[in-house]
Amino acid sequence: MAQIDSIARKQAPAELPVRSLPHNIEAEQALLGAILVNNEAFYRVSDFLEAKHFFEEINQRIFELANGLPFLASDMAVHELLAARTVADSLHFQVALGKIRRASGHFRGRLIAIDPHRVRSFTKRHMRPHRHDKRERPTKTAQTFFALDVETGQPICFTTGTSARTAAAAAEELLMLAGDILNPEAGQTLVLADSEHFTTKLLDRVKTETKFDILVPMPNRRILRAKLSALPPEVFRPRWAGYATAKVEYTPQDSHAGPFYQYVQRQGERPEDYSFNAFLSTRDGNEVEELAVDFPQRWHV
Which residues pair with 118 in a beta bridge? Predict the structure, then answer.
């Protein structure tokens, strides 16, 4: 039996080597490189070339992706686009687009939240990397500020911040853009900001140069807490169990547009349990509605 198996193996035909289809990886890479650099190269071959014509699977996937996009934003195309437009052109475009969206009903214009975001940046400049938690790899990010319509959740406009440009300075430009887009009546729109926007300059500019009003938390420092705890009890009005509010006129140091209105929250049932925090508003509004109903909405946009 062993002799028969040996003869059968000798008589079995040898397996022929598998031959691959003719291909040229360098040519595929050169073509894809030309497509990414110049969109015209894609239009010249898209009528007859398909993804299956590429030998390498990765090249097939790249071509499929390119075939599904109406425009390939290559580095060169982006640089040419930016070089042909000034910052002023970009701002005018934001305003024009915002007015179209306002006419389409995207904004109600009653409450606006100034919302800071860090978006990933691919700049070649040296920048300090950031990460959201320890599990992520630090990446370069650009500080951006959005003006959002609180009640619709829609972005109205945005601007950027830099190491030399504070959040309050960026907010000034942001509100100017939002004002051009919304064109509100005086007293119609309340801007909700966070404590990093608490500056006398921003408060003065909002009150004197815009039709907006702004509500911003005051930094909860020891000196402020001491002043709030020294307020006479009769200025507070109980609202519900353990919660009372007060509204007093307040003019920040070096302000030329005050007085503003300080909304004070007092929490606790007994004097030894009291805790205080305060907001500053450019208008004499309903502090209970603005603190308990309006301002918390900025956290959910």
Answer: 143
The answer to whether 206 touches 228, Cβ cutoff 8 Å, is no
Q: What pLDDT, in 10s, does the model give residues 23-80?
A: 788 888 888 877 776 666 776 787 788 888 888 888 888 877 776 665 555 566 667 7
Specify the DSSP element, H or E, that contains 248.
strand 243-250
Whether residue 249 contacts residue 261, with contact meaning beta carbons closer than 8 Å, is answered with yes
Instruction: Tell the residue number behind the tokens 């193996």, with chain if given.
Output: 9
* Distance separating the N- and C-terminal Cα atoms of the chain: 82
8 Å CB contact between 213 and 189: yes
- Are 228 and 217 within 8 A, CB to CB? no
Domain extent listing, the chain: 24-84, 108-212, 215-300
Q: Give 145's contacts (C-beta < 8 A, 6+ positions apart).
A: 114, 115, 116, 117, 158, 159, 160, 161, 167, 170, 171, 174
Could you tell me the two tokens for 70? 């109406």
